[in-house]
Amino acid sequence: MNPALRLGSVALLVAAWLVGSHLVGSRLLPAPQTVALAIINEARSGALAFNLGVTLLRVAASFTIAMAFGTVIGLAMGRMPVIDRLADPWLVVLLNLPALVIIVLAYVWAGLTESAALIAVALNKLPIAIVTVREGARALDPSLDEMATVFRMSGWTRLRHVTMPQLAPYLAAATRSGLSLVWKIVLIVELLGRPNGVGFEIGVAFQLFDVTRILAYALTFVVVMLAIETFLVQPFERHVSRWRIRPA
Amino acid sequence: MSPAGESGQLELHIRHKSYRVASGGRLHVLGEISFSLANGEVAAVVGPSGCGKTTLLRIIVGLDRDFDGSVLLPAHGRLGIVFQEPRLLPWRTVEENVRLAAPQAGEATLSTLFATLGLSAHRRHYPGELSLGLARRVALARAFAFEPELLALDEPFVSLDAALVERLRAELIELISRRPTTTLLVTHSIEEAIGLADRVFLLSPSPARVIAEVPIERPRSPRSAAELAVIRDKLRVAAVSG
Prior knowledge:
The structure holds 2 protein chains of 2 kinds. Chain A is mainly alpha-helical. Chain A is built from 10 helices and no strands. Chain B has a domain of 134 residues: Rossmann fold, CATH 3.40.50.300. Classes of the chains: A mainly alpha, B alpha/beta.
């Protein structure tokens, strides 16, 4: 994509924000420079880094839990029809439980603890990971499976060299959609029952009607997630698809 | 039909094989097929397309166990197979594909193998970057690197041009002579069978049964057109009387 075009689009967004803040007033929509100043102040006091770090750790932990269980369960459901039929109703229930219900129940049953928060977020992401990986497992090529059987490949070799590369696009899709979903739910979990993190700060700012602070935290975290996507997810994707012939 | 040899590498007795088809009934693919191969023997099974040759091969290598009969394999039962489509892992290089199937193969074995098959320059290439002829060679290299007691080839030369088939055939002959391996070739082409095998089994149309067994003297050596014509005639007569 043309970088100049991208940059122009971002500049347009900032300009629209500037105009908007003049129209509705700085109490409802503070100007970009006010928000930038707030970010710098929060960064100086160390609060920004601390809260971002805490939230990021929660995102990483719950995302890892959800992806690990999602991959195992999705593979099992995609490969074994009996398990698929047994687990499918559970999956439908979990898919359709609102995030808020899972979070509230987790806090009621397990108390306002860190593990309750992480499990609640992971449970929200889990069914989507399962559904995506199950699709991938259903699309596995049986002819490569037969090849692995005839050449007596070990279970580990099969998983690492035959199965996982076929699942890679599905895992990448689950990662993409998963990261953005998980961080949004982590904020709600923090708002409802954690004493720190970006969600907690936004909750405090909401009570004080401090829009500047809400925007300062939200935007910084968006930038962090954007960096993860650009410097972690995309290079990984390029690495696992290096064997594909790219149009010159 | 040959009697079961005492030192047979492969003893095959199929009485009946049928498939359940989508419409409900069963499709009878294989009838009575029995033969045995001795150590180091190269045999070819020839039949019209769709007669169940691939099914036969799948039964022998153990990918299909739903049949009436028995298959006796060599003691250690290491089977190498070259499928009709190369079935390489597209996300691994040529060399990785071979090494993953044959982790025990040493560098010396591999480089000889790659050199014989003209693959030395392609070790680091991905299968998607190879022509069908080259991909078939990688499948061949993989099967040989596995050092099988029984090598099964399913139409290894189909849809390649004549000159390439001739080269690959020569390479295959060289590999078999270097490391004598009991080999079963399945093909629809009588020419291919005559050019490689010590013995040719002729199959009837589906449900397939063996209608003739023709030993080939002096296999895998250059033959004159007249000699080839004689063998072809012999096979034709056998097919008609069978």
